[in-house]
């Protein structure tokens, strides 16, 4: 067996999220979400773009599943839009919303594609934001009720569940930087969003266990950037470590696996955590089946007493993607190896990895060599991680389709399939063709 071969049964997939691809956010009785509201507020997104149409996946899901089949995907990660199911976040159920995901799941299973469902990818019902959203402690109950209902309706067919997508981004980009919905700029709100997401997550894991879903597994997806110290000085090493504990998997996995926030957070930011947060830690420590790792890029960190948590990013001259993010595949290995060493999860999935480039259609083809190179370099590191003891079971490319890239609107393309937003025509990019060979060969060398 060649060294470049992935383990048998490796779960090759691609990922999307409801608000980024579905379109039709208010049809069939769905309620408004915070992203619907945020994108419709002038000044919040590039060009005033919204998810009103997006990839029209709500209507084109069959065509999109046919594309997945053509690509040979073994798995597909998508998210459920909470306000399609509960238009007001709780209470009244919207059966037509359930129907949509029933159709989607059944079509996937017919195509022999394993669904991985994210229960929350940032489109909170707007009605719940009016009650304080993630800063209200009651959200742990609202979320668990919604999630448990999803287990009851889909658990017979969906076995792999992800509670939250990137709770750090939700908490800090949404509540501190103000660049994502709900557009707040309050560090206290951010830390209470962290804490309440953890409470919601663990209550939901408990509810999942009680449902006793045959072969069911549940995990959480976390955002990660490789933070490396700019110099070998203790100051830079400490600043990089603190950036890691704050914005990567430790902020969530330390409470989940070890029952407490990371040391650096307690030393430098505990004043922002909710009063009496300690009382919840025992409940938050709840076993999960897998950890989902999202990875895109790295940062070089220099100590800077003027910045929050004492570090700032400095340039190191690496090539960048269209987002301006460093291409740093070695950091992917460091994150994967780090999560295994620090928390020893039973299973790890890469739930997102990918890049935006300035794709051009030439004679109905998209020659995106840079994306192929990016994916190849990252898969190399993923394989190295497996060979060095990481329990990596699968990899999901971000994204299946070009889509609504949040505050960047439609200006950034992450897909392995190109979407012409005027006609809604899909074109498999060269990277998509390349990825389907990877899947077929279970190797990136062929
Ligand atoms: O589309 C989102 C992708 C794109 O890049 C997806 O919905 C999210 O789950 C995820 O956050 N996504 C993403 N993250 C990359 C963040 C990298 C930040 C690097 C910043 C360097 C200055």
Automatic annotation (TrEMBL):
Cellular component, GO annotation: cytosol
Catalytic activity field: Hydrolysis of terminal, non-reducing beta-D-glucosyl residues with release of beta-D-glucose
Functional pathway: Glycan metabolism; cellulose degradation
Enzyme Commission designation: 3.2.1.21
Superkingdom classification of source: Bacteria
GO molecular function, one term: beta-glucosidase activity
Active site positions, chain numbering: 166, 352
Enzyme class: hydrolase
Alphabetically ordered keywords of this record: Carbohydrate metabolism, Cellulose degradation, Glycosidase, Hydrolase, Polysaccharide degradation
GO terms, biological process: cellulose catabolic process
Assigned protein family: Belongs to the glycosyl hydrolase 1 family.
Annotated NCBIfam families: BGL
Name of the molecule in the record: Beta-glucosidase
Species in which this protein is naturally found: Petrotoga halophila DSM 16923
